[in-house]
Amino acid sequence: MRSSFIFTSESVSEGHPDKVADQISDSIVDLFLSKDPEARVACETLTTTQLVVLAGEIRGKGIMDADGNWAEGVKDEIEKTVRETVKRIGYEQSGFHWESFRFENNLHPQSAHIAMGVDESGNKDEGAGDQGIMFGYATDETPGFMPATLYYSHKILEKMAADRHSGAAPFLEPDAKSQVTLQYDNGVPVKATALVVSTQHSAELSNEAGQQKLRDYVKGVFADILPVGWLPAEDKIYVNPTGLFEIGGPDGDAGVTGRKIIVDTYGGAAPHGGGAFSGKDPTKVDRSAAYVARYLAKNVVAAGLAKRCTIQLSYAIGIAEPLSVYVDLHGTGTVEEAKLEAALPKLVRLTPKGIREHLKLNAPIYSKTAAYGHFGRDAEGDHFTWERTDLVEPLKAAVAA
To answer: How many domains, in total, are found in the chain?
Structure first.
């Protein structure tokens, strides 16, 4: 493992068009799970100038029957939920306004053939909703066991969004991106070598004085978020490097669910199986297995069994048990990887149903995940249960046996 290197991760704000799509999709997941905890949802969203389109497959009691007939009032609830999500993000612009965009709902019933293969029946456990590989990762370089480059990229944009919503920075608009480049010595982040923010802004900043005001504000955010002494040289701080950024969000670029999978996970510091999370109910292992893989990896590192941990799980459609469990401690472990590979499935049942029950995933908890990362967040009540470290002691006991 290299001990000294420079690494970069990026994040995008809640107002980025792809994140708008993710949040809409997950707001629909939450709406349907609030009606039926066993609902099946695959909801894709497209956002563009004054238009939001939903498409996908659904099934659930009190939502839609097998013939595609909506339960009374549900179509209106869907549109209301979509508009409220966009309003919460803050879009009230001529090119994309929560109150006036056109809305299309193209959701339809889930395939009966898929349902037949994955539903629990008789002595048959609930099968995986698809084949695939899923990864979980954890590192001890931040308190949240996340890569520092991504951790700070998220925090920068969260601070800017909080200032926008509170009125502390009224010149900010919702769309923004950040990028953090850090130098690592002996595997530990020690300073930033470059920082980038591109943020949509109001027309009042479209002059030289306004651009300087924006730069000064963003530099202040960097100073607030990064550890003391970490700021790079002035010429390595980039704020709207292409110039003006007035037209943004879905009016500037079309947004689609599931296009920010690296931002959603580990910022490129770990492998990704390719499956997006947002818009999917927790029977989809793209989501639930990635969550449990993170849960297991985080508990391995929190238990002091390694400084870094990557876990891979794989599944086949209609089959309940994982086809493989792989652990890589990157040369930082205090225990054999094979021992963890044997122990982990005994601590958590890694079937779709076992994962959902252990992490309590059959609940309307997903809207909060759809911006600023699915991992490294604080476990609060029913939210982000996969960030808990309640396996630390059982893990220690299992590997000591």
So the answer is: 3
